[in-house]
C-alpha cells in the first residue's frame, strides 16, 4: 500500500497534534521488525518542482530546431565553436545546408536582444539562437563555408560538360568520313529532287537528316536512308565506320547546356561573395578561435584562379558553338538556345544509320542462307531424277560367289575331259598316203 504524499510542513503539524498512543511494542517487533525496511522517497512538494523551460519560439519553430540539434549531435556551444573554426571534421556540405536553413532570422535576433531571460531557464532551441547570435555575420559566414564545401562538385559539373562539348565540336569540324557522307547524302537527295522537279539544293539542315528514314520507296517496303546505307556498303565501304570519328557527338547531345550556365553563374556569384565577405571580416571584430579569414583567404587564393579559367572556357565554348553553326549553315541564335539539340540530331541519325546497316547485314545473311538452301534443294532434286541402279544384297552376293565357284569347278572338269579327248583324236584318224 502506497503511503500518502505529505509535505514537510504538513507533516510537522500532524505530529504536533498527536497524543500519547499505547501499543504492544514487542508484538510490533515480532510482526514487523524482521522484515527489511523499504526506503520510501517522499515526492517533492509543488514548491520544490523544477521550473518549466522558457522559450520565445512558437511550437513549430521550436520543434524544427530540436530535430536539427538531434541531427547535428552537438550542443549549442560546441556547434558555435565548430562554426568559428570552420571545422570540416564535424560538418559536410549537406549538414551545412541544414544549418543554413535553421539560422536565426533578423526578427528572431531582435526578439532575443530584448529578452533578459537567463540561459539556465531557456529551452535548447532558444540557446541555439543565442549561441548563433554571438558569431559575427553568421549567415554570410555559413554561406561562404557552403560555397567552399561544394566548390569541387560544382566545378566538376561545369568543367566536364564544357570539355565534352568542345571535343564534339572538334570532331564535327575535322571528321573527313562524316563530311564525305554528307556530300553523298546531298548528291542522292539532289538527284531525287531533280527527277521530281524540286530543283537542286546546295545544302540541307542537319535537322532534316531524320526525314531520310521517313521517305519511303514506291512499294513502301524500304526508305531513303536504307538506300543510302546500301550505296555506302557497295561503293563507299570506308564510310561505314564514320561514327568512330565523331564518337563524342552522341553523348554531347545528352548534356543540358542550361545546367552548365547555372553552374558557371553559381561559381562566379560564389567567388564574388567570398571576396566581399573577406573584405567585411577584415574590418569586423573577430571572436576568439575564429579561423574564417585564414581558411577562406587560402581557399580564394587556390580556387579563384580556377573559377576564372572555367568561366573563360565557358565563354570560348559559346564562341565555338556559334562558329560551328555558321560552318554547317545553321542559325547561330537558334543553335545557342539549345546547343545539345544540334548534337542530338546527328547522334540520332547515326543510330538510325547503323540500325539500317544492321538490317542490311541480316538481309545478306538471310540471302546466303537462302542460296545454300536452294543449292541443296537443287542437288536433292537432281539425285531424285537420276535412274536407280539396283545393288544386290550382300547375302545375295555371297550366294552368287558360291554358284560361281561351283560353275568354275564344273567348267574346269569339262575342260580337262575335253583336253584328254583331243589328245587321243589323232590316233583315231585314218592314215593318209
Quickly describe the structure.
This protein is mainly α.
Overview of this protein structure:
It is a single chain. The chain is an all-alpha fold. Among the domains are: 59-135, Methane Monooxygenase Hydroxylase, Chain G, domain 1; 172-337, Methane Monooxygenase Hydroxylase, Chain G, domain 1, CATH 1.20.58.2220. The protein is 68% helix and 0% strand. It is built from 16 helices and no strands. It has helices at residues 8-17, 25-33, 59-72, 76-85, 93-102, 106-113, 124-133, 138-174, 176-195, 224-235, 249-252, 257-282, 292-327, 332-337, 339-385, 394-428. α3 (59-72) crosses α7, α5 packs across α8 and α8 (138-174) runs antiparallel to α12 (257-282). The longest helix is centred in the C-terminal third of the chain and has 47 residues, at 339-385. The relative contact order is 0.08. Mean pLDDT is 82; it is low at 1-15, 34-46 and 419-433.
Beta-strand level of the residues, as a percent range?
under 5%
**Structural class by sheet pairing and helices:** mainly alpha
Helix content bin: 55-70%
CATH domain topology of the domain at 172-337: Methane Monooxygenase Hydroxylase, Chain G, domain 1
Identify the overall geometry: elongated
Q: Uncertain regions: pLDDT < 50 for 5+ in a row? A: 1-15, 34-46, 419-433
Radius of gyration: 52 Å
What kind of sheet is the major sheet? Answer: none
CATH homologous superfamily caption of the domain at 172-337 = Formin, FH2 domain
Order of helices and strands: HHHHHHHHHHHHHHHH
- Helices, by number, come to 16
Care to count the β-strands?
A: 0
- The CATH class of the domain at 172-337 is identified as Mainly Alpha
Summed over residues and divided by their number, the pLDDT gives a mean of 82
